[in-house]
Automatic annotation (TrEMBL):
Subcellular location per the Swiss-Prot or TrEMBL entry: Cell inner membrane
UniProt cross-references to PROSITE patterns, sorted A to Z: SDH_CYT_1
GO biological processes: tricarboxylic acid cycle
Name of this protein: Succinate dehydrogenase cytochrome b556 subunit
Pathway: Carbohydrate metabolism; tricarboxylic acid cycle
Cofactor(s) needed: heme
Species name: Oceanospirillum linum
Amino acid sequence: MKGHRECVRAVNSKRPVNLDLATIKLPLPAYTSILHRITGVILFVGLAFMFWAFDASLESEQSFNAVKETLQEGAFAKFVLWGLLSALAYHVVAGIKHLFMDAGIGETLEGGQLGAKLTLVISVILIVLAGVWVW
């Protein structure tokens, strides 16, 4: 019964418990890290689309032209392509930031904040350029 008392004491403790995720304030580097993971998942899932397009483009000249036409004229396909390029751009920029941090550059609090801001700014520029290129 000793374990039960410890459990009741832990539940009745006066420690603050914050389960409202909307009120939790994370620092900017935490958000950029979360986005890095999300873009990795998007790229992994997006590989299915890219493998399909690559496989179809290699079947014959007609299938190559069909894939080309879909990517040039299909709004949804362009949006998916732009999304994958955007995820790739952000993931690469954030990965390079992590490589710098692995080398000991930007490990301080100020360096982490600056690295997160640079990651976002450079990524937004690359995402806009990818959008201009796709459309």
